[in-house]
């Protein structure tokens, strides 16, 4: 990328490995890619900071007041924006993620992860100087970007380990762990919604 973001070595290697064609990758490949990225960025802990990951990849993240009452239905639904090589008159860094400042934390984390996933999956850094993408208000959809985002928010090894630890803890205390309790605890641990946890469990089956 000539004027856009300087691609992180690991991201570049991953994209080149797939010849910039990641549209058909399977869930096990997604989990391995995310594991590789987290290790390269030295991201530790159960709940990864998506903002820190994005910053380490050369982007700046801003909370942006998208209009709740836009001029039309399309503009009203915008909740996130990814810009490469754009001058927003906000900062010297023209590579930005804008996240709707009115979103609560769990939804904001998902939007950031979705935009990050879109960047990794869809942009050919070697041929792109300027690019933008808008995230619109939507339910969880079974698309590649959503699956990638959920896997970023709840990495396979950490997520599976938490499930097992909870089961062991409840068995040791001779208590029954209900499905709703499990979903709620995992949602709080990974700072996501219970709907996102349900979707992640399905992806791991």
What key phrases describe this protein's structure?
205 residues; alpha+beta; 9 helices; globular
Order of strands in the sheet with most strands:
1-3-2-4
Number of distinct beta strands = 4
Q: What portion of residues is helical?
A: 40-55%
Q: Determine the N-to-C terminus distance.
A: 38 Å
Radius of gyration, CA atoms, in whole angstroms: 18 Å
Question: Would you list the SSEs in sequence order as H and E?
Answer: HHHEHEEHEHHHH
Report the sheet-strand fraction.
5-15%
- What coarse outline follows from CA principal-axis ratios? globular
Please work out how many helical segments DSSP would assign. 9
Q: Outline the low-pLDDT stretches.
A: none
Sheet of most strands: 4 strands, mixed
Descriptive overview:
The protein has 205 residues and is α+β, with helices and mostly antiparallel strands. Helix content is 50%, strand content 11%. The protein has a four-stranded mixed β-sheet. α2 (27-40) crosses α6 and α8 (179-190) packs across α9 (194-204). It starts with 8 loop residues before the first helix and ends with a helix. The model has no long low-confidence stretch (mean pLDDT 88).
Helix and strand layout, with pairings?
Blueprint: H1 9-17, H2 27-40, H3 50-56, E1 60-64, H4 73-76, E2 78-84, E3 96-100, H5 105-122, E4 131-136, H6 144-153, H7 156-172, H8 179-190, H9 194-204
Parallel strand pairs: 1-3
Antiparallel strand pairs: 2-3, 2-4
